[in-house]
Automatic annotation (TrEMBL):
PANTHER family: SELENOPROTEIN DOMAIN PROTEIN (AFU_ORTHOLOGUE AFUA_1G05220) (PTHR36417). The keyword NADP does not apply. It comes from the Bacteria. Pfam families: Rdx. Keywords: Redox-active center. This is SelT/SelW/SelH family protein. NCBIfam families: CXXU_selWTH (TIGR02174).
């Protein structure tokens, strides 16, 4: 028989509190049958690198049947940011970053991503100017 007092307390989910860390959760559901783990991991890495501590979590969620879906839960329940079947194909990372930024860090400048979007909106991204 063991003395219960000598045993460590049962493990509980430990979430460290870090000053300035966001609480938003991004979930990237990917198809394991299609072998899209590397693509999902790359998208996760891009989001984590860009948003650093402004996100609380980026989760990779295995799925099947050709799924590639990105959702964001900023506290009001999950919001669909991208669905391969609905939106067609895979998300462009700059567009996905803008969608996440608009929800969790509207004050964050995305640098060249924002400048490229502004040029495209102004019609400058199409190549040389006509003369």
């Amino acid at each position: 028989m063991t003395d219960d007092a000598a045993l460590p307390a049962p493990a509980e989910t430990f979430v460290p509190t870090v000053a300035g860390r966001g609480t938003a959760r991004v979930a990237i559901e990917y198809c394991t049958q299609c072998r899209w783990l590397l693509r999902a991991a790359w998208v996760a890495q891009e989001l984590l690198q860009t948003f650093r501590t402004r996100l609380g979590e980026v989760a990779l969620v295995p799925g099947t049947d050709g799924v590639f879906r990105v959702t964001l839960d900023a506290g009001d329940g999950p919001v669909l940011l991208w669905d391969r079947r609905v939106d067609g194909g895979f998300p462009e990372v700059p567009d996905l970053k803008r969608r996440v930024r608009d929800a969790v860090a509207p004050d964050l400048a995305l640098g060249h991503t924002d400048r490229a979007a502004a040029r495209a909106a102004d019609g400058e991204a199409g190549g040389p100017a006509e003369g």
